[in-house]
Records
---
Amino acid sequence: MNNRTVIVAVSNQKGGVGKSTILVTLASYLNYSAGKNVAIVDCDPTQRSLVRLRERDKTTIGKSNRLMALLDGQRESGRKIYPIVAAKPENAREVAADLAAKGDYDVIFIDMPGTMDAKGVLPTIFSSDYVLTPIVADNIVMDSSLSFARTTVKVIRSNNGLPLKDVLLLWIKVKHRSNSDVLSRFSEKLGELGMTVLKTVIPDTCRYDKEISESVKPYFRCSLLPPPAQYLKGSGLKELAEELIIKLNI
């Protein structure tokens, strides 16, 4: 067990913003490229998107000699495949604690459902060390995201005994031209509220949607292999990982 294992709930009150996509790509970079020991607890009971992604990755890699060679090389380097474990929202924190007790993990991410109404979501969030909340510079999305973050921060500040230290807001899907004004306006508002906004900004790029395939098409999102180094530039992923390593002290 790593006594310094950090539990991070990845949550947003608005579903469909790309939370799980960012999470699995970040986890793969941290685990396979940055040398950090990572685990994921998938507690989205309706989608199980990351558990299913892992199943697709295994199937696809098993059919490709090229991808199998990459996976074999990664194993020879000593980097282990990180676990993705399914759990109910109300049991997710317990499952994360069990993983931490049995393994030497630097960080365990809990992929939360895209709604606060699911049973056990709030207790899991408040018993984690941090919440990572991807936000999109869109008025409708921000209304719900801001409400969630503001309420959570208020609870933290009024309950010093909670394990939860902070809510980390992350701008994603940023279109530099079309929504820069909205981004600036909300960033100013978040600053006035004393909320923690990560410096890294994830641009609106289709590379995060590219899964592995048997063909030689480029991929970026995979739970068994790291994002290829040649596609990292301009993605914001390396910068996000480096910022979180310092922020979470992992």
Note: Residues 60 and 213 are 6 Å apart (CA to CA).
---
Amino acid sequence: MTLKAILWDMDGTLIDSEPAHQKAFLKALDSLGVSVGFGTQKEMLGLSSVEVHQRVVELTGLNITLAQWRAEKWRHYQYCSRNITPLKNSQAILDAFSAKAIPMALVSNSSRDELELNLEVTNLQNYFQFIISRDDVENGKPSPEGYLAAAKALSIKANECLVIEDSLTGVKAGLAAKMTTLFHPESDSLAPLCPEGAILLRPDKDLNEWLLTAFNYPDENRKR
């Protein structure tokens, strides 16, 4: 089946936001007077605020609602997000495929507020025909709901969409949506965990080159 659209994850795929999320997470816990074990935040990579809240309550025993947790995390995240930047050559890739008129959507487990702030800080807000946040679906990743909603919004069949993800949670969502799913993790340590059915592109490999091949475009640089 010919690929006709790209459905992007955001955090860790297009932008380097994980340090900001980690700092905001730890600052929120500190302000609430609790802490969690070393590496716990990394274990939550790809989870939505709903799942993170559940895990925090389990680990700390905090009597805090989801709304209260999100408000506290958001308060710190607004400050921590100031230094977020696009990852590698992600902006150049978005420029190239926008010029080729390839429809693109963004599907994230982040809240709408976090997503819009990230896009504003990195100047990536104008590349996507549709944006699906965790607030726009009943079930976040690894549910396929967000990706299926994006395909429907673009009026493109699920099996004509390419999902690009850096987390196992997101890859599972793409596979569940019956979409071609590319696993392009930031750390090579995750490569052996690539789920069956996903395509692994290791961190040191060129995403733009892979995309040009997948969408049957010639690599102009290779011709020179």
Note: The mean pLDDT is 92.
---
Amino acid sequence: MLFDTHLHTKFSADSDMLLKDAALAAQKLNIGLVVTEHLDFDYPGDDIFEFDPIKYMDEYASYRSDRLYLGVEVGMQEHTLEASRRFIEKAPFDQIICSVHLLNGDDLYYKSCYNEDKQTVYLNYLTAMAKLIAQHDFANILGHIDYICRYAPYTPPDITLDEFGDAVDIVWQAVIDKGIVPELNTRRFDNTNNIQPLLKLYERYAALGGKYISLGSDAHKSENVGFKLREAADFAAQFGLKPVYFVNRQMQLCKI
């Protein structure tokens, strides 16, 4: 059974999804879930991307099963590293995704992040990612390497090996050296033009010795749970990458 290892419910500031609705959607698709609520300390703007980990575990305890596990997505910043570490020690999370949502303290969603040329901004992004994932030694998964591509105004927005191969290699080597698994996030699979450039990045990861991958929809609504998950698994199989999820912070192979 495949697991959707990245989704957000009402404990995340940007989602109102109820866990019962996510679980029902997963049941219809015959997939498992790992819930990963947002934790981003010192996030700019009005939204507070923090939650009470004990309340989260208590409220969702009855849903926990061999088809549903409870995790967290930690937004990586150097100055919030120790606060994030203390947070995850408060509750028995099954899985920790660590992601880059900010660059130099600015939200990648906003145009203010993109006042320089693509080469400069993307190199800064990938360099920060490699440094941060090496520091966040509690990570199980590196979230969406292509997150910046969702919002960047450049044409094309993709991270390509021709432009950024050396920086991508540094990220993947940090992942491999730390025993962390990269996520293949299906959020951008809604546009077929995004898929091939993205998959080239994972082909390179496999060429460097990577063996495992997590698959995540990044769903914030129940209708997006499991989005393009099987297609992503088929793509990963082309490169010999095995889909995994985590239970009690231990890697588990998806049985497909």
Note: Residues 118-135 form the longest helix (18 residues).
